[in-house]
Amino acid sequence: MSKGIRIARWLVAGFGIVAAGGPVAAQDAETFYRGRNVDMIVGYPPGGSNDLYARIVSRFLGKYIPGNPTVVLRNMPGAGSIVAANYIYNIAPKDGATLGIISPTSPLDEKLGASGVKFESARFTWIGRAASSVNVSFFSRNGPVQTTADMFTKESKMAATGAGSTVVVYPTVMNKLLKTKFNLIMGYKGSGEAMLALDRGEADGHSTSLDALNAEHPDWITNGAVRILVQYGLERHPLLPNVPTAVELAKTDEQKRIMRLVMSSVEVGKMFFSTPGVPAERTEALRRGFDALMNDAEFKAEVAKARMDLIPMRGEDLQRLVGEVANMPPDMLAKVRDIYPSGG
Description:
Elements: H1 3-19, H2 23-33, E1 37-42, H3 49-61, E2 70-75, H4 82-90, E3 98-101, H5 106-111, E4 125-129, E5 135-140, E6 156-159, H6 166-178, E7 182-185, H7 191-200, E8 205-209, H8 210-216, H9 218-222, E9 226-232, H10 246-249, H11 253-268, E10 271-274, H12 280-293, H13 297-305, E11 313-314, H14 315-326, H15 330-339
Parallel strand pairs: 1-2, 1-3, 6-7, 6-8
Antiparallel strand pairs: 3-10, 4-10, 4-11, 5-8, 5-9
């Protein structure tokens, strides 16, 4: 038998084993991840709710991925997490060794042509969601705004961060669509710093996730230091049964439809994803590992200790949800663009 024929037969046999799938395909992911560091890119500075979720997930996820890699957290703030999204889409290796968490509004930001976006959300490899992402606007008991009605008649200074963040998106939508009088003071480096500004009296209020408020200042809610006057979600959160949603505050059917579309980012929530082009067996390994993590007793205890929600969604369902935003009808897209802060 010639050397060429022997090589040809070896190649055919090798490809036949790979094509058959099964143990070898699973071993490929395990071999890839064994002894490897997996980057967890957080599009925000330390201290906010996205950072907190990422830190807890990073501590536990490795044991559920074949090969048990070490997940290393890296904060990459900028432009409401657009900097991180661009990095993961364009620069990070497309091999499944990079994970990320960014603003839940990112798919909508991209669809609306937000400045600086250089990614296609539907092409990311979506791994799974830890929780929905209910945001709230709250105000100091010493400030001018004390009731929901006051939001429409009295100007309030709201400490804010980057233009693409929900910290800015939701109050801006409220101003443009429902005519509230929030005066956004931009430039704070995350919700932690913005809440310090509120504590010092530099601002009258702030808008951030309920998780971030509960994690950083749970006492503010219990002792009445702040008043939560609106929540951003499709339904009232169980912890806030008496606080109206932004959808409920809409006055017309069209306003309600537009507000519901913007609030769809709440369903995207605290989501984790990887680059485009991750090999199929590694995508499966990451998704099933994430699913297993969501049922880990120690992980769930850590999330509860941090006073955060745990409302998981599978990666396949998250991929479909992001795809729905990408396929938004043109007429509704135009209406949302008119009131959205990062619309093109």
